[in-house]
Structure formats: structure tokens, C-alpha cells
Amino acid sequence: MLTWMRSFGDLQRIGIECSGSYGAGLLRYVQVAGIEVLEVTAPDKHDRRRRGKNDDFDAESAAHAAFAERHTVTPRSRDGMVESLRVLKVCRKTAVQARRIALQIIQTTIVCAPDKLRDPLRQMTRMQLIRTLAAWRPDLTAYREVEEAYRIALKSLARRYLELHDEIADLDDMIEAIVKDLAPELLEQTAIGLNSAAQLLLTAGDNPERLKSEASFAALCDVGPADRTTREPIDDSSKH
């Protein structure tokens, strides 16, 4: 590919869309080759509406944007510990979601369960309930009977919850170790916990030098101050 590109002349830089997802492999390949890469943030909306979605046109637009350094940013490097942190955080997020769903299904299943099963479970705390259900020993051959089917289902859900609970704890240990390696001073700051510190590191990326100022970091976090000169004027006509 690079040979083909260079056949047209001097290859100064390459523009890539979606460098954090579909373009991640291409980004790594080009960076290893030592070529400057710019992430093209978005195609020209006017041209997109006029021409419609077209891969050839999108590639041409990305090339023009990279050449003019317009609608581009320096892509995040994905070859350091921040990338390790990112994939672990993604894994943790899905595990937390799955654990929450398991708990919700446990609660709704208990509501519908026969009184003989439901009544002894009413006054238990969450973890008492989960561990009690996980310790049940239902007759797996009697799954056609309603009460035993409830026992089997609740035990399965409770074991799933505990497995996810342990998985999340293991991931938290790994995430904390990476955060301490990268920026131990963050965790020493007031009101910055593990998740907040990890998210700050993810936002900055492995190459924070691409952020030239505090304003650029604020813009990346979508918390930059609004330009007062661009605000719509207030209509006071109703007061007169």
C-alpha cells in the first residue's frame, strides 16, 4: 500500500478516519513505517449531503483534509499502558452491566417464585441473598417441576453474579496498578477516585503531548467555555 502511495510522489502524511476503531490497525501499520498520521475528524457535511455516502469520495476528502491539515487532530497512540487501561476498562464496563442485569433478573424471578421459596428470602441483604441462592442444591433432574426450576434458575443467576463480582474485583486491581504506574499523584488528589483518574488518563492518551494547551484538553472533554460572541441574542420583545 505504501509503495503504491509513494508512486504518486512524496508521501508527507496520511489521513485516517476512525483511528480508534476500524482504522486502528491501519494507524499502527503507518506509524511503524514512520509516517506522520492525522486523524480526520469528519467529512465535509455539505459535500456529504450533496454526494451521499461514498467510500471513494470519503477517501479523497480524508486525503485533502490531511494535506491541508483541516478537520484533523493528532491521533492517540495505542501502543502503551493507556491502551492496556482502555481495554481493561471496556471489559469492566461490560462486566458491571452484566452483573446489574443478573441482579435485576434475580429480583424479578424471586417476585414470581412460589411462596415456599420466596418467603425465607425476604429479609436478606443483597450479598446474603446471592450467597444463599448460590449455595442451593436443586435436583437437576427435576427441572420439569416449577419449584425446582425456580431453584435451578436462581442458583444459576446467583453464581453468574458472583463470578462477575469476582471478575470486576480482579479488573479493578489491574486498573489500579496501571493508574498508579502512570500517574500516582492523581490518586492523591482530593475527590479523584480510581475511575476518575483512569478516565483522565484515557482522555489524554499515551501521547498527551498532542494536547497543546489546557484549552485543547477541555475541548477534548467537551467542557470548553462557550464563545459569548456566538450566542443567540435574547429576544426581549415580549417585555414591550
Automatic annotation (TrEMBL):
For this protein, the record's PANTHER family field holds: TRANSPOSASE FOR INSERTION SEQUENCE ELEMENT IS1111A (PTHR33055), TRANSPOSASE FOR INSERTION SEQUENCE ELEMENT IS1547 (PTHR33055:SF16)
Q: Which residues form the Transposase IS110-like N-terminal domain?
A: 4-100
One MF annotation (Gene Ontology) recorded for this entry: DNA binding
| GO biological processes | DNA transposition
InterPro entries (UniProt xref): Transp_IS110-like_N (IPR002525), Transpos_IS110 (IPR047650)
Q: What is this protein called?
A: Transposase
Which organism encodes this protein? Shimia gijangensis
